[in-house]
Amino acid sequence: MMIDLIPYDASTMEYTHYDNISGMCMTRDQYFACFAGGAEFPTKAPALAKLAARMIKTGFVKHREFESCFEMGNGGAVMALLVDMALEDDELRDWWNLGDYHIGEFDKVKQRFYPSSAA
Question: Could you tell me if residue 8 is left (phi over 0), alpha (psi between -120 and 50 degrees) or otherwise beta?
Fold first, then answer.
């Protein structure tokens, strides 16, 4: 899925995978082409949740844009939608678990929205 990754250079602030994919990264332009999907960053919870899910599924969650998905005044709604998506999408849940250091452990996050469910 990764496109033309290049060696990471901290001086240019390129975007890295949470595992740093052996020191490889995307350029800023590639990152925005892959995730932003246009000039406008979404503001509605469903679009933000879809964007966050796409970032999780590729491991690119260490960046400001991922955090921005939860800072549009509707972060709780975005996270609730993301949890629901992960409950139905094993691949999303698997990637979430791989990046839980940056996202939060799925079972603990799920408990915030489904407190009566078993962990």
Answer: beta
